[in-house]
Amino acid sequence: MDGLDVEIPPALLAAVKDALRDLVHQLVVGNFSGLYTEGRTGDITAEELQAAVARYPGTLIDLPDQAWPYSDATAIKGEHASWSIVISLWTAQEGRSDLNMVTNMRAMSEGIKVIISDLDIQ
Fold first, then answer.
1. With CB atoms 3.0 to 4.6 Å apart as the test, which of 67, 80, 110, 122 could cross-link to 63 if both were Cys?
2. Residue 5 lies in a domain
3. Is residue 35 part of a domain?
4. How far apart are CA 36 and CA 48, in angstroms?
């Protein structure tokens, strides 16, 4: 069992993980403007997101399979099928880092929508 299993319904779990993997991959490849244009950065500009990643003293890598136990999902009260998800990011130098990506996720008829609300150091 991982951190997402507790809150995310089993029918949505694979899609949520795929959406989170894609979001992190976009950070890894430096697609900050694409994330912003697609509305996946919330109130954070592409420049702010890029600066936050650049300030961290490690090179982000895609999420490995062992990343999921270091994630946490909390249902957002008053919103149907919505969760706040925090996941540890991984770097080439450290493996699991102390940099976390905080997101808001909503299951919609069009699919899973995940928006970055913050990058913070634990």
1. 67
2. no
3. yes
4. 10
Whole-angstrom Cα distance, residue 114 to residue 82?
A: 10
Task: State the chain's mean pLDDT as an integer.
Answer: 92
- Total domains in the chain come to 1
Read off the pLDDT of residues 31-51 as tens digits, 9 standing for 90 and up: 999 999 999 999 999 999 999
Both tokens assigned to 10:
């089993």
* Strands 111-121, 95-108: pairing kind: antiparallel
116 backbone dihedrals φ, ψ, rounded to 5°: -75, 130
Domain containing residue 71 = 10-121
1 assigned to some structural domain:
no
Q: How far apart are CA 72 and CA 66, in angstroms?
A: 14
Residue 18 lies in a domain: yes
CB 35 within 8 A of CB 117: no
Taking the C-alpha atoms of residue 71 and residue 23, their distance in angstroms, rounded to an integer, is: 14
